[in-house]
Specification:
This protein is of the alpha/beta class. It has two domains: 21-48 and 274-367, Aspartate Aminotransferase, domain 1 (Alpha-Beta Complex), CATH 3.90.1150.10; 51-271, Type I PLP-dependent aspartate aminotransferase-like (Major domain) (Aspartate Aminotransferase, domain 2, 3-Layer(aba) Sandwich), CATH 3.40.640. Helices cover 40% and strands 13% of the residues. The protein is built from 13 helices and eleven strands. The protein has helices at 11-14, 25-32, 51-61, 73-83, 95-107, 122-130, 148-157, 178-187, 243-252, 260-271, 273-297, 316-328, 352-367; strands spanning 38-39, 90-93, 113-117, 134-138, 162-166, 193-197, 219-224, 237-241, 308-312, 331-332, 344-348. A seven-stranded mixed beta sheet has the order 2-8-7-6-5-3-4, with helices on both faces. Strands 1-10 form a two-stranded parallel sheet. Strands 9-11 form a two-stranded antiparallel sheet. Strand 3, helix 6 and strand 4 (134-138) form a beta-alpha-beta unit. The longest helix is centred in the C-terminal third of the chain and has 25 residues, at 273-297. The chain is globular and about 55 Å long. The N and C termini lie far apart (67 Å). Bound molecules: pyridoxal-5'-phosphate. Residues 43, 95-97, 121, 166, 170, 197, 199, 224, 226, 232, 237 line the site of pyridoxal-5'-phosphate.
């Protein structure tokens, strides 16, 4: 029998590699045959969501036959009150990842340049490639900080329309304060939008987050309920910025990307300040413990302002081997993908019990021959 004709895949998509930004722990469980991985690789909250959020989501489940409010009016009103702006400055999406795809479409055309740090959060680069825009990268400094002046220069040189910065950054954990960001914003070319991903804003130093200027058309910021709020599986994030930029998102977004259970959970979670404060302080304690663990094991750690810490294994090979060695011991972690940070492993702050289990597995794996870097 003759094969049916094969309609072509669009050229931009046909040219993409089959790679994905992440290998999920579920896939690692399927391939390793384990079902009980200690999940310290995706920066999920070990402390879970607020009990008030869980109760609100259970109640909302009764109405799951109904679509959610496509405008997320209740949630946007609460977020707007907190940001001191009107709701027209906020758009909700199915997590920041969803909003990053929209941002690429709102601000670039295929062929336009988009700038980011090499090895930073991979989903931005994924969407840039998927839309046929052109990725321009600047490496991290050797100490894991972002090279802000080089990023601004790359934006000018490439006539970029979009520049992505995670602050606090993932995977480095580094943080640029309000003053540094204001100077950076001022150095950007006028046709380039700063896409500021604040997925870890709650963990940043108190008072360190730049104030929101709703009148600045050149900055769009994103936040999520996935990290400090412990709702990663619910998929809810938001972008905020100038009303005209947010209006661009509203013209192309998937109207029902945010489900009603997530809306109810996020609204309740946002109202439970005490829970988030507890998560933030327990996370700070966990970071200090990881730092001390690194010292005990003779490994440097990167200063972190997020819910994870990077340990320096000394080389890409050792870091890759350590990810495998930990997986064999039932622990899922990830590692930065590009130099100069690719000799590190990145470990999410767990509960005290999870941290103890990680410390035991890490110490044991390091004791294996060849696992440890030479002292430097
Ligand atoms: C985890 C993470 C995200 C993902 O956020 P979602 O709202 O779950 O899509 C986005 N940006 C950074 C920097 C992250 O680390």
């Amino acid at each position: 029998m003759k094969a049916p004709p094969r309609p072509p895949i669009a050229p931009v998509v046909a040219a993409l590699p089959a790679s994905r930004p992440f290998i999920a722990p579920e896939e690692l469980e399927r391939t390793s045959g384990r079902t009980d991985l200690l999940r310290l690789g995706a920066n999920e909250s070990a402390f879970g969501p607020s009990p008030a959020a869980l109760a609100a989501m259970r109640a909302a489940l009764e109405r799951i036959a109904w679509y959610g409010d496509p405008e997320s009016v209740d949630l946007r009103a609460a977020l707007a009150r907190s940001l001191g702006c009107g709701p027209e400055h906020i758009v909700c999406g199915g997590g920041i990842d969803d909003l990053l795809a929209l941002a690429v479409r709102v601000f670039t055309s295929p062929g336009d340049a988009a700038v980011t740090t090499l090895g930073s959060y991979p989903t931005f680069a994924y969407h840039v490639a998927g839309y046929g825009a052109r990725l321009v990268t600047v490496p991290y400094a050797a100490d894991g900080t972002l090279q802000l002046s080089e990023l601004a220069r790359a934006a000018a040189d490439s006539r970029a329309r979009l520049l992505y910065l995670a602050n606090p950054d993932n995977p480095s954990g580094s943080f640029a304060d309000a003053g540094a960001l204001a100077a950076f914003r001022a150095a950007l070319p006028p046709e380039c939008v700063l896409l500021l991903d604040e997925a870890y804003a709650e963990f940043a130093p108190a008072g360190g987050i730049a104030p929101f200027d709703a009148n600045d058309p050149g900055v769009v910021r994103t936040r999520t309920f996935s990290k400090a709020y412990g709702l990663a599986g619910a998929r809810l994030g938001y972008a905020y910025g100038h009303a005209e930029a947010i209006g661009g998102f509203n013209k192309i977004r998937n109207q029902y990307a945010v489900n009603r259970v997530a809306q109810a959970g996020a609204l309740a979670a946002f109202g439970d300040r005490a829970h988030v404060a507890r998560v933030v302080s327990e996370t700070a304690a966990g970071r200090a413990e990881y730092r001390a663990l690194g010292e005990r094991l003779g490994l440097a750690t990167l200063p972190s302002h997020a819910n994870f810490v990077c340990f320096d294994l000394g080389s890409r090979e050792r870091a890759e081997a350590m990810v495998e060695a930990l997986l064999l011991r039932g622990v899922f972690v990830r590692k930065p993908g590009a130099p100069p940070l690719d000799g590190h492993i990145r470990v999410t702050v767990g509960t005290p019990d999870e941290r103890a289990r990680f410390a035991a597995a890490f110490s044991e794996a390091l004791a294996a021959p060849g696992a440890k870097p030479a002292p430097h």
